[in-house]
Design brief:
Elements: E1 5-8, H1 18-31, H2 38-56, H3 60-74, H4 81-94, H5 105-112, E2 117-123, H6 126-136, E3 144-148, H7 153-163, E4 170-174, H8 177-186, E5 190-193, E6 214-216, H9 223-226
Helix pairs in contact: 1-4, 2-3, 3-4
């Protein structure tokens, strides 16, 4: 691999994120345990999230709205104002979670800074992602921060055009094969997958990737061995 620009996904690539959502969903399931099983409730939340993506996009605010819709469905629209308030509280707590860097992240960024143009390319709420980057203490390593509404081939193509970067000179590193790797490979860039121990159901794929521009690593530190 010989990229000139290296982009990193943020959530569950640079810092922990998905466990906070898992915890939030556990709290939600506890509130509505008399209406359905946890498995059924989680399925309903996911269905609402996927259905709402074209309207709300990704992030905590969209997740909170989907939880409210799930609660309305579970209670047949009889949920009280207090119940809605409890759900909003779950969302607000998510927006205030501490930022905990994943192991070896800063070591890798230090080693790459100055040799490559470093970029953050992530989905989610604009304000929340900028907060997390600020609180992480690693924002100074990056040349550019891009919070995308989605990570499709078109989204990446537009981003590369804005940054005046050729796909052949671009490497994307992330924990999601669906969002961080496949679209980039399809437009001619490089992709490295560094898995996280848990993955949102929406981001999972059911096939293996075989591509000359793709690498699967077990730790972000291994990136330094292939560049």
């Amino acid at each position: 691999m010989a990229p000139k620009t290296i982009a990193f996904d943020a959530d569950d690539t640079l810092w922990h994120n998905e466990p906070y959502f898992d915890e939030a969903q556990e709290r939600f399931c506890a509130l509505f345990q008399d209406y359905a099983s946890s498995q059924e409730i989680l399925g309903l939340i996911l269905n609402h999230q996927v259905k709402n993506l074209p309207l709300y996009g990704f992030g905590i605010k969209a997740f909170t709205l989907s939880m409210i819709e799930t609660a309305l469905q579970l209670t047949n629209h009889t949920i009280s104002g207090k119940g809605i308030e409890q759900i909003i509280s779950i969302g607000k707590d998510l927006l205030q979670k501490p930022v905990e860097l994943l192991p070896n992240v800063e070591e890798v960024l230090k080693a790459l800074q100055g040799k490559y143009k470093l970029v953050v390319a992530t989905k989610g709420d604009l304000k929340d992602q900028h907060r997390k980057l600020h609180d992480s203490g690693i924002g100074h390593y990056f040349h550019h921060i891009e919070v995308l509404s989605d990570k499709t081939e078109l989204d990446y193509t537009k981003m590369l055009s804005r940054l005046e970067i050729k796909a052949a000179d671009f490497l994307m590193i992330g924990n999601s094969l669906k969002s961080d790797v496949l679209p980039i490979l399809n437009i001619g860039g490089y992709g490295i997958h560094v898995p996280y121990h848990t993955t949102w159901e929406y981001e999972k794929i059911d096939f293996e990737i075989e591509h000359k521009n793709f690498l699967a690593l077990t730790d972000i530190k291994e990136v330094l061995n292939v560049l």
